[in-house]
Amino acid sequence: MRITPLFRGRGAHAARAIAVGTVAALATTACIGGGGSSDSGRVEIRWFVGMGAGTDAPTIPAQEAVVEEFNASQDEIELVLEVVDADQAPNILSTQIATGDAPDIVGPMGIRGRSSFPGAWLDLTPHIEENDYDLSDFDQALVDFYRIEEEGQIGLPFAVFPSFMYVNLDLFDEAGLPYPPQEYGAPYIDADGNEKPWDIATMTELAKRLTVDADGNDANSPDFDPGNIVQFGFGNLHADIRAQSTLFGAGSLVDAEGDAQIPEHWVEAQQWYYDGMWKDHFMPNGPYGESDMLNAGSWFESGNLAMGNTHLWYATCCMGGFEGSWDTAAVPSFNGTTTAKLHADTFSITKDTEHADEAFTVLTHLLGDAAEELTTTYGGMPARISLQDGYFDRVGAASFEGQDINWDTAIEGMSYVDNPPHEGGMPNFLEAEAVLAEYGTRFTQEEGLDIPAELEALRADLQAVFDAA
Amino acid sequence: MTAQTDHSDAALRRRRRNLLLTACTTLGALLLAAVFLMPLGYGAVTALKDKDGVSDPNGSLLPVSALTFEYEGETLDVYAVPMPGGGERELALVEPGRESSTFVDPDAPGEGTIAWEGRWRTLEPVTGLAPQWGNFAEAWETIDFLRLMGWTLMYALTTMLFTVVSSAVVAYGFARFRFPGRGILFGLLMATILLPPAVTLVPKYAVFLQMGWIGTYLPLIVPQLFANAFNVFLLRQYFMTIPKELEEAARIDGAGPIRTFVRVIIPQAFPALTAVSLFHFFYAWNDFFEPLLYLAGNRDIVPIGVGLSYFSGVYNTEPHLILAAAILALALPVAIFLVAQRVFVRGIVVTGVDK
Amino acid sequence: MSDFTQAVLAARRRGGRSGRPASPMQRREARWGYAFISPWIIGFVLFWAVPIAASLVFSTLDFQLTDPDATAFAGGSNWERALSDPDTWSSLAATFRFTVLFLPLSLIVALGLALLLNSKYLKFTGLFRLLFFMPSMIPLVAGILIWQQVLNPQTGWVNELIGLTGADATGSDGIRWLDNPVLVLFAFSFIGLWGIGNSMIVNLAGLQGIPTELYEAAQIDGAGWWRRLRAITLPLLSPILFYNLVIGSVLVLQYFVVPWVLFGASGRPDGASRFLLVHFYQEAFVFGNMGYGAALAWLIFIVVAVLTGLLFGTARYWVHYGTERS
Questions:
Q1: Does the residue B45 lie in any domain?
Q2: Are the beta carbons of B317 and C145 separated by less than 8 Å?
Q3: Touching check for C286 and chain A: CB below 8 Å?
Q4: Which stretches make up the ABC transmembrane type-1 domain (chain C) (predicted)?
């Protein structure tokens, strides 16, 4: 998880002078005149939301309430909430950082958001030491998750989003199939009472039977019409190559020497996904996946997907109004190993903040007193161990009243997290991501690709990007 | 006598020809408009569906819903089921199964369930038109529509007024006066639209930041006081088509340049000024990125373009609500366009009289 | 006569005669000219001069948006990279391919619609004007959402309409508007033509400025529709057509929002949507490399400026201004 800052250490004095001459000069004067402290004599701390959860209309009032409550509770700091459309947030944040108008606190933000702004975050270590901030309520591994070589402790754990299988029970009932197991290690018991290991092969079989065309033929039937599918068996939601492949085991596209690699089991995974879309048709390919029928990408909530693999955030973001009945299931294993990938969110302080101490006060408030309220709003499991108890009761009461959803699956999945993490850093991160996105487009849109050859080409492209770092 | 018949014959033929041409033109325009507006039709229909209706793979084009029936606390869809003994019955689907399902008769739920062999997916649902007018209410409430409208209208109208007045003045300067450096200055004006706007975004933000304008409407409104290259160019082109004799006549009457501009040029250019006003109004009405950037995410004062984005999250969108809100937001511009059209028509009359 | 290049030439001529003092009349005219354009000059100095100069300076810097402190002087390396980057050339080619298709199409459609709406044979003109302008009022977010679904190969209305003729257009082996490098240009064109309202209204405003006596006279002379179009409408509308041509070229060469919202920087399909500005935007904002981005932007500026300059150069052969009639 090493992030190489792109232009660190190259800054000659002359160059810096020029930079100051253009933007920075404007920016510094602006900071004196512009932001800083508000009329009331309080220090203004700007909280930027848009790099993760928190931009959907229903989540905004709760965040406003947290701000209001905080401002009423003390008279040193004026906390200001800035909610920005998620698609535009990176542009706006980079414009603000470049002009010296950086917000003080950014979050909630996943690893991807953080990696998109290498070098922009404040090392919290001195503040943690100075304030004697108690970290014992966090899992040490999660704290270390945000300790980046050369950048330091750039965030503290706020929420975690384990992944699991979302299962549409109605579609299983319709097909007369028993539900997948909710306990890790438990077998799948089919309609005849036979026990099968809950692995990729068993899941594939199920998925094919749960893929149906308009005439009611399933994907195993010789009459099945792949041009007119109305229900799909399995889909990995909002997943790129790294997220998809992690179902077959954790891995990294960067080897120990920092070179590009495609792990052997990821090659297998990619072939399985590709065949699932284009040969066996139990997974939505590009055209199906972008259509209204599958909610233009938010597949599971359309009711036309039997099993969806994704994270806990999907429950609160998208499943609140679901009309059918759904439940959780364990992630199937591959070659005897189970991997349930993990997302984790943090709040970070920007390196350019003028009021690091006050920002740290706000940060600890968001991670502390406000965490219970905010984690419920964003749909993440609190990283604070003392808050995890009763968390799912609160979520259930808030969003899933009257539904009996087995959240233990989510908690149990935390024992199978991916290490190295699938969203981890890569040299030249943003450009490497662009290369992956380009591969992903061909993968989901084009039929008849030779996947091993495609992956070899991908590795070469990645290597070129890594070399340019 | 014969001459008169010939004459009325010719008149009749001409009238018939005109009528035919009118019918064909109007019909053609209607067809064209139908094709042209087809996507808008999709939008309107989607705005009237519920979320399930949008993703229903057997969904009809129209916002129809299956007729439903409440049975033992569950809402069931009603299908037209062909019965083994012949005939068809409208039954509610209790338990769908691949090859056999159970139904219940909505007219006689007391008689219990009916087992049926066959694939329910091949059945025709019994549907009725069920437009979800509630989408409009939901969209209205979720984003505090009236407040958005108020700010949007303020923003669109002030900037429209500013840009039209300043652009007309500047355009007249470029169109009718000779002065050293005119070519260079006009080139510079054009350069402001030839340079990709995104490249000046960061320094522009820095300028406004220095002025302390971030978080307010000032960066969006004030620059419009100083003309805009698109509008200046268009108005200059239009002014240059106006015959010079009119101005010369005014000048002989002793009118100065300002009077000539106000009394002669402005009335002549009414259609073009209306066009510029309309463009600017709709541009501002739908403006998204700049308000988002300069208003610094201040939800209380954003215009509607930004408000719409609250319906589209990172991982899910609410197409029916976005479209419902977009259609709601369309109402006012449509009204304004209809009013502006009258000005348009008056514009022709004015030019007709003057020429 | 009074177009851009002419004005430049005239200015140069005047410069040559600078020894001769201008007459009081000329000086008075110049003073009024400056007075009229002064709002723009003030605005330019206040809001444009610094950002434009700054962006030019950026192009010589190693300037990462997310880490402004680490900025370093880069000399001409950004420019060298911009010229040697294969993406620059392929995006230039993609932009020209689309320009060649869309620019003539949009000019013709905008003129055609304006002529139709100005026709005395059309009833309910007010309604039709509204109908054809309406898509231009739809917020872009909603518009693109609509088009994405209407053009979906699986469930889109366009393919289903084509399917009504008996052709099998739907599905991954059907007509994939957004995934074929040629078809996608047509998809962009549809979306572009949908927003043609502005050019249409500009043409309409121009048509309404043409004195009706001219047509009456021509009709008495027995000129048919086509001759009236060639001899009266097009020449008198030429300044407006010229505006549409110039602005249309600038906008199509800087075509960005639609491909960006649909495909991001992916260039899908096969680089066909990686236009010049998409390339710039990815470098400058996605990768945050504003130094390199600024060099690209100025390169785009040069391309667009040269083409616009050429258009202004041709203007004297076909653009007729009312002023000349006197």
A1: no
A2: yes
A3: yes
A4: 92-311
